[in-house]
Amino acid sequence: MPAARDETDHQSSGCALSRRGLLMAGAGATAVTAAGTAPGVAAQVPSPPAPPPQENLVATTRVTLSVNGQPHSLVLDNRTSLLDLLREHLQLTGTKKGCDHGQCGACTVHLDGRRVNACLTLAVMHEGARITTIEGLGTPEKMHPMQSAFVRHDGYQCGYCTPGQICSAVAVLDEIKAGVPSHVTGDLTARPLLSIDELRERMSGNLCRCGAYSNIIDAMADVAGLAVPGNGDRRPA
């Protein structure tokens, strides 16, 4: 019996491959085909081509506008706020950056005759616009009547919010004159009354951490020709 088994093995070995060898050879061939390399060698996955070098991707726009009567043409990052245009590009630092979220009013300027918070609007939105800042209202030698009234009534303490307060105060009187209603206007079809309540309501978006509110209203009442609060019926001379 052992001799017969040896003969069978010998006859099997005379074939090209044993069953085990055939299976191993097939698996090796499959691996070579799939990986594209010899068995036992790690497959090399080609790396993606490197992207071409990119230049500055910041989008810019040329903006031309008038600031305090002077024309300016600048190429700006599209994300530049009107406030940063004034302060960083034109060095008009009278307009202050307070909260930078439209909550304090320190950055108030006049845009085409209407007051806006300069921190909340992009410069590229105002091609051809007319901007007036505190520097454009008056100078130390020739002050705007509202600036003079703020000095006369001590409408400031630290002074940081004062440029925005003055720009807003000037716009408030123009709004009332133009008949623009406010939240305390009783009848929206009627012209708003020029009153202390109207002044207070319309100035509520300008914050003063020093608390000079009563003096600010005094200054505005002075310019508007109203009786100054606390002085009875006496009108300012």
TrEMBL record:
Sorted UniProt keywords: 2Fe-2S, Iron, Iron-sulfur, Metal-binding, Oxidoreductase
This protein's GO CC annotations: periplasmic space
Gene Ontology molecular function terms on file: 2 iron, 2 sulfur cluster binding; metal ion binding; oxidoreductase activity, acting on the aldehyde or oxo group of donors
UniProt superkingdom: Bacteria
Residue ranges of domain 2Fe-2S ferredoxin-type in the record: 61-137
CDD domains linked: fer2
SUPFAM superfamilies: 2Fe-2S ferredoxin-like, CO dehydrogenase ISP C-domain like
Gene3D superfamilies, alphabetized: 3.10.20.30, [2Fe-2S]-binding domain
Protein name (Swiss-Prot/TrEMBL): Aldehyde dehydrogenase iron-sulfur subunit
Biological source species: Roseateles aquatilis
